[in-house]
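Researcher: Please predict.
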Amino acid sequence: MGMNTFTTFVRAAGGRFDRFRREEDASQSVEAVLVIPLLLWAFLASYTFFDVYRAKSLALKANYAISDLISRETEPMDMDYLLGAESVYEYLTQASPDPWVRVTVVYCDEDCGESFRSLRVDWSKATDSLPTFSDADVMSNLDPIIPWLAEDERVIIVETSVDYEPPFSQNLTGIGERTFIDIVMTRPRFAGRVCWEGEPPCY
């Protein structure tokens, strides 16, 4: 008698499972509760992911614009000019306040075709009281990324930095605040060098 009861139970359970497996009806409200949070997270994460690349692209393009502007100068620059360049950079990046700009003009002094070349600084200026570069700073920080230069050839190094704040909380998307720092190098276009006011010689 006990065995028959167990067999009947197994058959009944098997029948219910088969009906459940073949069943195509559903509750839209239950499905919505399960799926909508996942879809919402995917939308927010995707939007933030592409917004990061948009902001990074804007920051780099703005740096190129500043670099091109400086490379065309034939008159000595001053701090008012550099602050104006910072304002242009801030406008182009549509960023939060307090970006910074640092410009360093570097030339090769000797052994220019060798790996142990000597690089010198014509001048280095920055906004927001940022430290400027000396000869030693350039050799230790920038030498690996500065291209080969002929003797006495100048290159203008423009560094920019801007903070990025994602449109949605990091708790939702996993993407938090970050700082974009870009370095662009340009040769002077219309003069042998770009000069800083009050720091002769300039030609």
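Model: Residues 26-186 form one domain.
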